[in-house]
Amino acid sequence: MTDEGDALLVEPDRRDPGTGLRAVLVDDTAEIRMLVKLALTNAGIEIVAEAANGEVGVEQVRLHQPDVVVLDVAMPIMDGIEALPLIRAHAPGVRVVMLSGFPASMMGDASEQAGADAFVEKGHLDLLVRTVLRVCTPKPVDAR
Protein backbone atom coordinates (compact mmCIF):
# COMPACT_ATOMS: atom_id res chain seq x y z
CA MET A 1 0.00 0.00 0.00
CA THR A 2 1.38 3.40 -0.92
CA ASP A 3 0.23 6.71 0.50
CA GLU A 4 -0.29 9.59 -1.92
CA GLY A 5 -1.85 12.45 0.01
CA ASP A 6 -5.31 11.40 1.17
CA ALA A 7 -5.49 8.58 -1.39
CA LEU A 8 -4.24 5.15 -0.47
CA LEU A 9 -3.40 3.01 -3.44
CA VAL A 10 -3.76 -0.64 -2.60
CA GLU A 11 -1.53 -3.19 -4.21
CA PRO A 12 -3.72 -6.19 -5.10
CA ASP A 13 -2.49 -8.97 -2.84
CA ARG A 14 -5.28 -11.50 -3.27
CA ARG A 15 -8.27 -11.82 -5.47
CA ASP A 16 -10.97 -14.44 -5.24
CA PRO A 17 -11.81 -15.44 -8.80
CA GLY A 18 -15.28 -16.34 -7.51
CA THR A 19 -16.36 -12.69 -7.29
CA GLY A 20 -14.02 -10.70 -9.52
CA LEU A 21 -15.47 -7.55 -7.91
CA ARG A 22 -13.35 -4.43 -7.51
CA ALA A 23 -14.16 -1.80 -4.87
CA VAL A 24 -13.15 1.68 -3.78
CA LEU A 25 -13.60 2.56 -0.08
CA VAL A 26 -14.30 6.16 0.88
CA ASP A 27 -14.43 6.97 4.60
CA ASP A 28 -12.65 9.60 6.66
CA THR A 29 -11.89 7.17 9.50
CA ALA A 30 -8.87 4.97 8.81
CA GLU A 31 -10.04 2.31 11.28
CA ILE A 32 -13.40 1.99 9.53
CA ARG A 33 -11.65 1.66 6.15
CA MET A 34 -9.42 -1.05 7.61
CA LEU A 35 -12.38 -3.04 9.00
CA VAL A 36 -14.41 -2.69 5.80
CA LYS A 37 -11.38 -3.63 3.71
CA LEU A 38 -10.81 -6.75 5.81
CA ALA A 39 -14.45 -7.81 5.58
CA LEU A 40 -14.71 -7.24 1.81
CA THR A 41 -11.32 -8.80 1.08
CA ASN A 42 -12.31 -11.90 3.08
CA ALA A 43 -15.42 -12.10 0.88
CA GLY A 44 -13.21 -12.12 -2.23
CA ILE A 45 -13.67 -8.47 -3.22
CA GLU A 46 -10.54 -6.65 -4.37
CA ILE A 47 -10.00 -3.20 -2.85
CA VAL A 48 -8.39 -1.14 -5.62
CA ALA A 49 -8.23 2.19 -3.75
CA GLU A 50 -9.18 4.00 -0.58
CA ALA A 51 -9.88 7.67 0.11
CA ALA A 52 -10.41 9.76 3.23
CA ASN A 53 -12.86 12.24 1.69
CA GLY A 54 -15.36 12.49 -1.14
CA GLU A 55 -13.18 14.66 -3.36
CA VAL A 56 -10.34 12.13 -3.42
CA GLY A 57 -12.89 9.33 -3.64
CA VAL A 58 -14.34 10.76 -6.85
CA GLU A 59 -10.84 10.86 -8.34
CA GLN A 60 -10.10 7.28 -7.28
CA VAL A 61 -13.34 6.09 -8.88
CA ARG A 62 -12.45 7.95 -12.08
CA LEU A 63 -9.00 6.32 -12.15
CA HIS A 64 -9.97 2.78 -11.17
CA GLN A 65 -13.52 2.34 -12.55
CA PRO A 66 -14.56 -0.12 -9.79
CA ASP A 67 -17.66 -2.29 -9.71
CA VAL A 68 -18.73 -0.88 -6.34
CA VAL A 69 -18.01 2.06 -4.05
CA VAL A 70 -18.54 1.94 -0.30
CA LEU A 71 -19.13 5.61 0.48
CA ASP A 72 -19.38 7.24 3.90
CA VAL A 73 -22.16 9.82 4.19
CA ALA A 74 -20.46 12.34 6.52
CA MET A 75 -16.87 13.35 5.67
CA PRO A 76 -14.84 16.56 5.57
CA ILE A 77 -14.07 18.46 2.33
CA MET A 78 -16.81 16.67 0.36
CA ASP A 79 -19.43 14.40 1.93
CA GLY A 80 -20.85 11.26 0.36
CA ILE A 81 -24.14 12.85 -0.71
CA GLU A 82 -22.22 15.54 -2.61
CA ALA A 83 -19.72 13.04 -4.06
CA LEU A 84 -22.32 10.54 -5.27
CA PRO A 85 -23.49 12.35 -8.44
CA LEU A 86 -19.87 13.05 -9.39
CA ILE A 87 -19.02 9.37 -8.92
CA ARG A 88 -21.98 8.43 -11.14
CA ALA A 89 -20.79 10.92 -13.79
CA HIS A 90 -17.31 9.33 -13.90
CA ALA A 91 -18.50 5.71 -13.62
CA PRO A 92 -22.15 5.45 -14.69
CA GLY A 93 -22.47 1.71 -14.06
CA VAL A 94 -20.85 1.65 -10.63
CA ARG A 95 -22.88 0.41 -7.67
CA VAL A 96 -22.77 2.62 -4.58
CA VAL A 97 -23.41 1.47 -1.01
CA MET A 98 -23.66 4.36 1.44
CA LEU A 99 -22.24 3.74 4.89
CA SER A 100 -23.03 5.90 7.91
CA GLY A 101 -22.88 6.11 11.66
CA PHE A 102 -26.25 7.83 11.47
CA PRO A 103 -29.31 5.54 11.56
CA ALA A 104 -31.09 4.63 8.34
CA SER A 105 -34.13 6.56 9.59
CA MET A 106 -32.02 9.76 9.37
CA MET A 107 -29.87 9.18 6.26
CA GLY A 108 -31.34 6.27 4.32
CA ASP A 109 -33.86 8.35 2.37
CA ALA A 110 -31.31 11.08 1.57
CA SER A 111 -28.91 8.41 0.32
CA GLU A 112 -31.56 6.84 -1.90
CA GLN A 113 -32.65 10.23 -3.24
CA ALA A 114 -29.03 11.00 -4.09
CA GLY A 115 -28.90 7.79 -6.14
CA ALA A 116 -27.31 5.22 -3.84
CA ASP A 117 -28.05 1.56 -4.50
CA ALA A 118 -28.19 0.77 -0.78
CA PHE A 119 -27.57 2.16 2.71
CA VAL A 120 -25.93 0.31 5.62
CA GLU A 121 -25.33 1.60 9.14
CA LYS A 122 -21.75 1.36 10.40
CA GLY A 123 -21.10 -1.51 12.77
CA HIS A 124 -22.83 -4.14 10.62
CA LEU A 125 -19.97 -5.57 8.56
CA ASP A 126 -21.76 -8.82 7.75
CA LEU A 127 -24.73 -6.86 6.41
CA LEU A 128 -22.39 -4.59 4.46
CA VAL A 129 -20.73 -7.57 2.74
CA ARG A 130 -24.11 -9.13 1.89
CA THR A 131 -25.38 -5.78 0.61
CA VAL A 132 -22.32 -5.22 -1.60
CA LEU A 133 -22.69 -8.70 -3.08
CA ARG A 134 -26.45 -8.20 -3.57
CA VAL A 135 -26.21 -4.87 -5.38
CA CYS A 136 -23.45 -6.25 -7.62
CA THR A 137 -25.44 -9.33 -8.62
CA PRO A 138 -27.10 -8.88 -12.02
CA LYS A 139 -30.86 -8.98 -11.88
CA PRO A 140 -32.48 -11.78 -13.93
CA VAL A 141 -34.05 -10.64 -17.19
CA ASP A 142 -37.77 -11.27 -17.47
CA ALA A 143 -38.16 -13.84 -20.30
CA ARG A 144 -41.70 -12.81 -21.25
Can you characterise this structure?
Helix 2 runs parallel beside helix 3. The longest helix is centred in the first third of the chain and has 13 residues, at 30-42. The chain has helices at 30-42, 54-64, 80-90, 104-114, 125-135, and strands at 2-4, 7-9, 22-26, 46-51, 68-72, 95-100, 118-121. It is globular and about 40 Å long. It is built from 5 helices and 7 strands. The termini are far apart. The model is unreliable at 1-5 and 9-16 (pLDDT under 50). By secondary structure, the protein is α/β, with parallel strands linked by helices. A 7-stranded mixed β-sheet has the order 1-2-4-3-5-6-7, with helices on both faces.
Describe what is shown at a glance.
The chain is α/β, with parallel strands linked by helices and 144 residues long.
Which secondary-structure class do the elements indicate? alpha/beta
Count of DSSP-assigned helices = 5
Model regions low in confidence, pLDDT < 50 over at least 5 residues: 1-5, 9-16
Shape: globular
Total strands: 7
SSE layout:
Blueprint: E1 2-4, E2 7-9, E3 22-26, H1 30-42, E4 46-51, H2 54-64, E5 68-72, H3 80-90, E6 95-100, H4 104-114, E7 118-121, H5 125-135
Helix pairs in contact: 1-5, 2-3
Keywords:
144 residues, alpha/beta, seven-stranded mixed beta sheet, 7 strands, globular, disordered N terminus
